[in-house]
């Protein structure tokens, strides 16, 4: 009893001491250890440093785009929108719009087909039944107009760079998505020692730097000692121009890009196929569903989130491609492969006009941002649909 009384008296006395203490005295009891107080700031510090590292060059580029900053002179000054107007207005930009619109009525069957496909894809999510058709007409009109204007009237290097960027991104990303998906589905269809070895071998191109891969392909396509040239000789084709001709330079660059980056699509699609539930496919097999029916109604809808992830990464990378084109032809022959990245590089580091090159980079960033935002929205929608929400 005495011991219990002393414990009670001690605890009661401590409680009374705390209750009678001033706010300054109470801070002693509520103060946390130093490490516990700074721990939240330490956790967000890496993300904060990365954000600063991204935003500082970005806003610096915006500032330089409004100056005449150059490596060939000391100092620089603010010149307003002169770099931007020079970029857009080259080649009598505003004076040729009407003529370009009239010329767009010429036959451009391939561009119309591409525009209709893009429109159908863009308008599928719309509630209106005629939306895909209207989207297709709109995309076709834009593509035909751009092609006609650039080839006949718009001699501005900016619009040429935009057109090269769009063509390269479309053909390289589209080819990689189709080939990568087909190869991945074939690999996952049956697992044995051959397919296991094939999975390892197909990843090898992804381990090679794009510049090194381009040099390898330059040797393979050499008209004197190239193995591909010797192969074409068997079919009576001699001295194929590859990257030396404006008509085949884009094909050669896209071919190298497809060889390097298709394994990336394969890896993502294989991971997606392996993560799909087995029960729907077993039920379809029991019901006697065909392979095409299973792919169209089960495999493809559930694979769409993975396909959109692959499309987002590859399309953004293809729009800003620099290494393959620079190592292959440095944008040539002539200006055949001069996309936005190469044009900005030439203006900034070859002609030493940093301020004049910044608008090209910022326009490229704007294009990538718009495309990524649209595709991420589509990815969220198909992910919810795949989850049944």
Summarize the structure.
This protein folds into 2 domains: 91-155, no CATH class; 156-386, MetI-like (MetI-like fold, Orthogonal Bundle). The chain contains 17 helices and no strands. The protein has helices spanning 2-19, 23-30, 34-64, 82-89, 97-103, 109-123, 131-152, 157-189, 193-202, 210-220, 227-233, 249-275, 279-286, 291-319, 323-328, 340-350, 354-386.
DSSP helical segment count: 17
Order of helices and strands: HHHHHHHHHHHHHHHHH
What is the global morphology? Answer: globular
Helix content: over 70%
Biggest sheet descriptor: none
- CATH homologous superfamily of the largest domain, by name? MetI-like
What would you note in describing this structure?
By secondary structure, this protein is an all-alpha fold. The protein has two domains: 91-155, no CATH class; 156-386, MetI-like fold. Helices cover 73% and strands 0% of the residues. Helix 14 packs antiparallel against helix 17. It is globular, with a radius of gyration of 30 Å.
């Amino acid at each position: 009893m005495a011991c219990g009384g002393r414990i009670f008296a001690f605890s009661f006395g401590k409680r009374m001491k705390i209750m009678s203490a001033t706010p300054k005295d109470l801070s002693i009891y509520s103060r946390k250890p130093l490490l516990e107080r700074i721990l939240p700031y330490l956790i967000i510090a890496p993300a904060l440093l990365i954000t600063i590292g991204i935003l500082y060059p970005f806003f610096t580029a915006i500032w330089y785009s409004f100056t005449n900053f150059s490596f060939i002179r000391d100092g620089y000054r603010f010149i307003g929108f002169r770099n931007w107007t020079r970029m857009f207005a080259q080649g009598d930009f505003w004076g040729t719009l009407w003529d370009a619109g009239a010329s767009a009525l010429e036959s451009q069957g391939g561009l119309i087909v591409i525009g209709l496909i893009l429109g159908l894809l863009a308008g599928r999510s719309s509630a209106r039944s005629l939306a895909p058709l209207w989207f297709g007409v709109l995309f076709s009109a834009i593509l035909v107009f751009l092609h006609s204007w650039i080839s006949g009237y718009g001699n501005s290097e900016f619009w040429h760079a935009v057109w090269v960027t769009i063509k390269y991104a479309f053909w390289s990303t589209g080819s990689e998505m189709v080939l990568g998906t087909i190869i991945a589905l074939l690999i996952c269809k049956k697992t044995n020692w051959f397919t296991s070895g094939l999975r390892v071998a197909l990843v090898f191109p992804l381990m090679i730097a794009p510049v090194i891969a381009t040099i390898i392909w330059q040797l393979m396509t050499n008209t004197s000692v190239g193995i591909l040239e010797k192969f074409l000789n068997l079919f009576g084709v001699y001295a194929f121009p590859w990257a030396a001709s404006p008509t085949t330079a884009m094909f050669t660059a896209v071919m190298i890009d497809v060889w390097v980056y298709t394994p990336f699509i394969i890896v993502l699609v294989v991971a997606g196929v392996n993560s799909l539930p087995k029960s729907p496919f077993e039920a379809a097999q029991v019901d006697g569903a065909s392979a095409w029916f299973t792919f169209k109604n089960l495999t493809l809808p559930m694979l769409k989130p993975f396909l959109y992830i692959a499309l987002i990464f590859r399309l953004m990378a293809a729009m800003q491609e620099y290494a393959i084109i620079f190592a292959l032809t440095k944008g040539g022959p002539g200006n055949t492969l001069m996309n936005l990245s190469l044009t900005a590089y030439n203006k900034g580091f070859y002609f030493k006009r940093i301020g004049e090159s910044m608008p090209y980079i910022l326009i490229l960033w704007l294009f990538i941002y718009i495309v990524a935002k649209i595709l991420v929205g589509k990815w969220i929608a198909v992910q919810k649909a795949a989850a049944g929400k």
